[in-house]
Amino acid sequence: MEVEVVMSARWEAPPSFDVFIQQRHRALLRFALVLSGDPLLAEDLVQDALEHVGMRWWLIRRRDDPEGYIRRTITNRFLNNRRARRREDIVDEVPDQASVDPVPRDEALWRQLAGLPRHQRAVLVLRFFEDMTEAQVAEVLGCSVGAVKTSGSRGLAKLRAVYSQEVPK
Question: Which residues, including other chains, have CB under 8 Å from residue 54's CB and lie 6 or more apart?
Fold first, then answer.
């Protein structure tokens, strides 16, 4: 019996896609990190989005805002991620020290943000971290401006309630 081995063609990214990734990858990763609160999930979200977009780059780059399309893809993948993503990194040896986050952050705020429902968290990250308008957030999330206002208001109310209890008067 003779077995035929079929090699798939390797996809070559167009130069414009390579340039885009070199210029915007760090910002997209930062966005995904704030959105998810998990560095590993953030990397996966960006990688999945870029893989999805890369195969359609010829079509997407003709749009007015390819980065907006990628952010929407990242956000949608985050919001639709229903599986429990518990990971364990298996290594031969335990590292001498834990990795350090180069950007100092308010751990209490990150915990509270991570505790919000996904849609509320996405709205708050897009509104305040990415400094988008309500209309822009609605476009990214594919919902109405009213839904953005409602989710943002509820998310902020939850954060305020927690912080008003923690701050001594």
Answer: 11, 13, 17
Taken in order 129, 134, 135, 137, is the CA torsion positive or negative?
positive
User: What is the Cα–Cα distance from 139 to 6, expressed in whole angstroms?
Assistant: 42
Angle at 27 (CA atoms; ends 20, 40), nearest 5 degrees:
110
Tokens 């751990």 correspond to what residue?
A: 107
Q: Residue 134's closest CA among 116, 153, 110, 159?
A: 153
d(CA 78, CA 41): 9
Instruction: Express each pLDDT in 12-28 by its tens digit.
Output: 777 888 888 899 999 99
DSSP 3-state assignment of 29? helix
What's the full length of the chain, in residues? 169
Give the integer Cα–Cα distance in Å for 88 and 105: 24
Alpha-carbon separation of residue 113 from 4, 14, 82, 143 (angstroms): 53, 37, 18, 21
